[in-house]
Specification:
The protein is mainly alpha-helical and 455 residues long. It has 14 helices and 13 strands. The strands form 6 sheets. The chain has a 3-stranded antiparallel β-sheet with strand order 2-3-4. Strands 1-13 form a two-stranded antiparallel sheet. It holds the Pfam family Glycoamylase.
Length: 455
């Protein structure tokens, strides 16, 4: 399998989208903050984190307060999806808002009210055996099909929300009466996700989709390794609709078939990166599941997840420096391949699918794994490329020096990990909240994980 189903479907949906070039003019609501050179590393990180946070604050879908699928500064939306809420981006955005509250980017009351608004929207939005769809109409809460048969529950995207719900519960559970009510709301939304249903008849694997109209016709049992580890962790952690350990080991672990032994640019790997032929996938595979799930010291029979994610990042870093295809601009200050906009639409950039496109979220969201290497990229983007890649919601989604391509566009699923992973690097906030949750501890123990957080 070349890509995960997510990438295949998005490629089909977004093919033909012509991203705006540097030469065109743009409509802006609020100008990007002026660039200040010579900032300390910590001050630079704060500027980037705060501005990227604004995607989920100022840039949120107005009715729901939730994370938009995308934002285009040119106001051109070929799919008429300016108001589309992305479930995954919403989950990442909830965690970003927690970091914004903790950092003082917004007041505690403002942050609380926004979280409450989003959770109230999620309560009323379409759900399918507790799972939200991939896309939701922000104005109505009704499902927006991600594909013809993908008009029901999306358990992977839902699990990204579940990760955030755990963090919200832990952040507010010992607060005021009002805050405890919000914590309870988050807990009940998590407990309402029927992970066991998505076994498709008690099979020992979790399925990505179910539709009331098409049932299981999408037919996508999720097996590792890719970005979906968190779905199995959340399923095992659920106190109401849990899954047994066999689902993880026989489904995700493929009865041991997930195990592998190969190196990329000298960096060792012990798991098969699905469809990559002894190579690694796009870097979001090292981000999405680990926004709350702390990979430090996290191990099971398949991997040391901290080592795995560090090596994944270094392999991409070293590949870009080697630059076997000779793309312009690649180097120690400009590296990072992941799923993002691409010159001809959308692509899951990785060493096997490299089109000369650098996605800022790749290196920036990897900052806990490669702080020195990631800071170099951030400083280059901010100080050297400047307004070409810097806008009102932080760095734009992708660019290519080879093609002189600098689209003024953002994707929610790429913005969220940058905010959250910068916060985890700076304070560990989201890792601490998620890993202290008792349901999470129970789930990880059930699946056979080891972690300092379980002691």
């Amino acid at each position: 399998m070349k890509f995960t189903f997510r990438i295949l479907l998005v490629i089909l949906i977004t093919s033909g989208i012509q991203c705006t070039t540097e030469a065109q003019t743009f409509e802006t609501i609020k100008a990007a903050p002026p660039i200040k050179k010579g900032l300390s590393d910590d001050a630079l990180l704060d500027v980037v984190q705060k501005q990227t946070f604004q995607y989920f604050w100022d840039g949120a879908e107005p009715n729901s307060g939730a994370g938009r699928e995308r934002y285009h500064a040119d106001n051109i939306y070929p799919e008429n999806d300016k108001s589309t809420v992305a479930t995954g981006a919403t989950g990442f955005g909830l965690m970003a808002i927690l970091s914004g509250i903790d950092r003082g980017y917004v007041s505690k009351k403002e942050g609380f009210d926004r979280l409450n608004k989003i959770l109230t929207f999620l309560e009323k939005a379409d759900r399918f055996h507790g799972a939200w769809p991939h896309w939701i109409h922000g104005e109505t809460g009704k499902v927006r099909p991600f594909g013809k048969k993908d008009n029901g529950g999306d358990l992977v995207e839902t699990s990204f929300v579940a990760q955030a719900l755990i963090c919200i519960k832990e952040y507010y559970k010992n607060g005021t009466a009002e805050e405890k009510t919000l914590a309870k709301k988050a807990d009940e939304l998590f407990k309402g996700i029927d992970f066991s249903w998505y076994r498709n008849g008690s099979q020992n694997v979790l399925y990505w989709h179910w539709s009331p109209e098409y049932a299981w016709q999408m037919n996508f049992p999720v097996k590792g390794y890719n970005e979906c580890l968190i779905m199995y962790v959340m399923g095992a952690a659920s106190p109401t609709h849990t899954i047994p350990a066999e689902v993880y080991h026989e489904g995700w672990g493929r009865n041991g078939g997930i195990k592998a032994n190969f190196k990329v640019y000298g960096h060792p790997f012990t798991m098969d990166y699905q469809g990559q032929k002894n190579s690694v996938g796009p870097l979001f595979w090292a981000h999405y599941s680990y926004l709350g799930l702390n990979p430090k010291g996290l191990k099971d029979r398949y991997a040391d997840y901290w080592a795995n994610n560090v090596n994944h990042t270094l392999a991409i870093h070293d590949y870009c420096i080697a630059n076997p295809k000779g793309f312009k601009g690649y180097g120690t200050n400009s590296w990072g391949l992941t799923a993002s906009y691409s010159v001809t639409g959308y692509a899951a950039h990785n060493p096997q699918e490299d089109f000369g496109v650098i996605s800022p979220t790749a290196a920036i969201s990897s900052i806990p794994y490669t702080p020195k290497e990631s800071i170099k990229v951030i400083r280059h983007l901010y100080e050297d490329l400047g307004d070409k890649v810097w806008g009102k919601y932080g760095f734009y989604d992708a660019y290519s020096e080879t093609d002189n391509w600098y689209p003024k566009r953002y994707l929610g699923i790429d913005q969220g990990p940058m905010v959250v992973m910068i916060e985890n690097y700076r304070s560990g906030l989201l890792w601490k909240l998620f890993m202290q949750n008792q349901d999470v501890k129970n789930g990880l123990t059930k699946l056979g994980f080891e972690s300092p957080d379980l002691k």
